[in-house]
Structures are given as C-alpha cells and as structure tokens.
Amino acid sequence: MPGGLVALLDDVSIIARTASASVDDIAAAAGRAGSKTAGVVIDDAAVTPSYVTGLSPARELPIIWKITKGSLINKLAIILPGALLLSEFLPQAIVFILMMGGAYLSYEGAEKVLEYLGGEKHGKTLDDEIDDPVAFEKQRVAGAIRTDLILSAEIMAITLNEVAAEDLITRAGVLALVGIAVTLGVYGVVALIVKMDDVGLHLAKEAASSVGRKFGCFLLRAMPHLLVALSAIGTVAMLWVGGGIILHGLADIGISGPEHWIEGIEHGVSAIAGGALGWLSFAGLSALLGLVLGAVLVFVLHKVFRLGH
C-alpha cells in the first residue's frame, strides 16, 4: 500500500507539473497573440460607445453589460469552437468567412457615412421619435453584438494564426484567455468612457478643492466632443478593418495585387515621411476600399433588393 500510494502521488505530481507547464505555455502564447490584435481591439473600443450615446444615462451601464455578455457568447460559444473545428477540418474556409465579415463591416461603415452626408436613413435613430424605448434598446444592443461578432472573429482569427503550430488544447486555452481578456478590457474602458460625464458632474459639485471642481467642469465640457469623436473614429474603424480584411483575404486566395500595391505606397510614404505616416496611408487606403465596397453593398441591398424599407 505505501508503495502504491507513493506511485500514485508521483503520478499526480507529474500531472500537476505538466498542467502547470501547459498553463504557462497558454499564458505566454496568449501574450504573444494578444499583442497582435491591438488594432482591432482599439476599433472595438471606438465603435461601442456610439451604441449608448444619446440614451438615458440610467441605461448606459445595463446596455454595456448586455453587449459584454453578448460579446463573451460570441467569442466563447460561437467563434472559439467554430474556429477550432475549422482549423482542424476545413482551414481554407476561414478566410472566406472573414471576408464576409469584412464586407459586413464595410457595409455598416459606408451606410453611416452616406447617412451623415444626407443619404436615406435605414432603421430608427435618435433623431426619430422613439415609440417603444425597450424595442429600440434591443435593436441597438443587437446591432452592437452583430458588429462585435465580426470584430471578435477578426481578433480570434489573428490569435489563432499566431498559435497555429500549437496543440489543440493550447490553441483552445489561448483563444479563451484572449477572448475573455479582450472583452473585459474593451467594455471596461467603454463603461468608463460613457460614465465619465457623471464623474465630471460629481467632481464639479462635490470636489473639496477648486482644482477638482475645475477638472470636473472640464470633463463635462469635453465628454460630448469625445463621444462625437469616438463615433466618427468608430465609423472609420469599421471601414479600415473591413477593407483590411478584404485586402488580406484576397491575398490569401491568390489575388495579392491590391494588397501589394497599397503596401508599396505604405513603404514609399514610410521612407519619405516615417513609419507612422506610412501606416496611416495603408489604413486610409484600406478604409477607402471599405467605403467603396460598402457603398456598392448599400446600393445593391437598399436600391436593388429594397431591403430595409
């Protein structure tokens, strides 16, 4: 019995060490992969505040929490198992699914641009009389979760690409860890942004020092402009990410000319004006591609097929 117990404890020790090593591998891989998703994460954070802008302050945090839960479901219940299955059995399909997502983001961004320029509006907006606030809130939350699904798919695809050589368990662990960390980080920041005016009001009224009260007044004045700026950044982000997904997808299926042409411009601008402007040139041309593609989709869906009327 003592010998059997020692053997059992030895086996448990080996399993524990193996599990610990696996956890370390997952954490390290998640760190490497997470850094690659920074651009899309920024886009996600910029897009989301627009879905609560203008609504009742009392509903802001509940709406963000609903979107957060939807985002976790997107990443952990839909994208994670789907990505693992596709990576195992049909990896060539991933690029086409991502391109469909890129087309959808381009459509969403172009529709917002066209509406801003005076085009026909589709669906209820805050400028319209809202007959059913509950239904309108559900519509906004559903729209946010749909957009999150595309951005989440891009985040998870980037992550999966970074750990493609790892075993299935490590890939699953990394995808789950990155998905949870990104979701909580993004929507935590969004919650802080949309409630910053309340913080400013509290400081303006309750701060003990004049510096605190002045800072509160500054926040109150700045927040409306910040939210408008974030809405614009979110629209540009949709077009940039959508166009970028299309460019990368075309290159992956053998049509590399457009991406190489834009990369050539990026390298030329970088050589003359520096890497930051070079990156902006690539992002700007990607957004332009997204705008053109999105405008075509808006025309086809709304004018040809009469959807949304």
From TrEMBL:
From which domain of life does this come?
Bacteria
Any transmembrane segments, and where? 76-107, 172-194, 226-251, 271-301
- Give any Pfam family that matches: DUF808
Is Transmembrane helix given among the entry's keywords? yes
Which keywords fit this entry according to its UniProt record?
Answer: Membrane, Transmembrane, Transmembrane helix
InterPro entries membership: YedI
Q: What is this protein called?
A: DUF808 domain-containing protein
Say which species the protein is native to.
Aurantiacibacter flavus
